[in-house]
Please model this.
Amino acid sequence: MKPIKVGLLGIGTVGGGTFDVLKRNQEEIRRRAGRAIEIAMVADLNVARAREVAGAGCEVVSDARLVVDNPEIDIVVELIGGYGIARELVMTAIANGKHVVTANKALLATHGTEIFKAAQEKGVIVAFEAAVAGGIPIIKALREGLTANRIQWIAGIINGTTNFILSEMRDKGLDFATVLKEAQRLGYAEADPTFDIKGVDAAHKLTIMSAIAFGIPVQFERAYVEGIDQLQAIDIRYAEQLGYRIKLLGITRRTAQGIELRVHPTLIPAKRLLANVEGAMNAVLVQGDAVGATLYYGKGAGAEPTASAVIADLVDIARLASADPGHRVPYLAFQPDAMADIPVLPMSEITTSYYLRLKVADKVGVLADLTRILADAGISIDAMLQKEPAEGENEADIILLTHQTQEKHVDAAIVRMEALATVSGRVTRIRLEQLS
Model:
């Protein structure tokens, strides 16, 4: 059987890793796929570098349109990233009847509905295991391994940069800005880390997982996104004293009212496995009604871990390309005509627990005022930590952990707290999840 011919768009870190892994494991991959898989064409603006990586026997061009329009190419692998030219190239490849493999979570989170519809109409496969959590096969687990389950919720550490920063802040007691510079020096953070530290990258990935878990369209624009750039080292220390660790979590949950879709810093009990995921590692916890909780852990980025996912998709396509399109695994796990129109809840309607830190005057009656405000809002206190004022100061920190309540009630309580003459500055609010 003739080899599957692949056209690669972009040959940076992941593209180079894909070449290396394909070459090193070519015989093992051929045995699994039932036919050879070879990269026949590469498009990259840096032609000299691309030729150096691709070597002899692979055509290298600077214009990616030559790849998607080449009738000899069976599968297009898109590793360019972004929303612009990547979307145009993917849509053209689909229109030309080519299967597509992409690691572009931003593209799928914003244009996935359009892309999957076009692919369905042309009868081609769009595979995207590498778009979420690098080498962790979470997409396959959600689409296939857990298909018997009614997924209840997903909580994931799905951005290695922010997890590295939070781990360093906790271990070394350093502030955010200092650790970010160190992460950039070590190559964990980009020169422009905005998408990572603001939570956007994690929200792209969560949007895709939520669509697969609950059979809803991808709708990134409805996700609540909050990053770690405003997080203070003192809150990490206080959380530790209370038995919690702070992680940037992507959380999506099915409720009777709708779907929660949110990314934000979160307190997790220190005894939970997810709380002990350190450094640049990723982990995704999935709760199903039949299987219970399952945890998926590994490297969420890097040349070869991500290449592992890209090649797994290539093997899947090699196996399934000749199958009747109606018998393939659906792009988002559910049959296209069975997708549900379930609303994504606004953040004000979600229910969780909260960590509240206030700087208050060291006076009698302050705590009574705070507890009265919470009681008026129907919010009960689970735990409290009251710090003594530093020497020579007349203000102290009070930390309150609440039981579960709706966000809108906490919003209202915070407004009243900040209006008290005895409360200085803003109230720090961090959400808390038990994950039990």
Remarks:
- The chain has a mean pLDDT of 95.
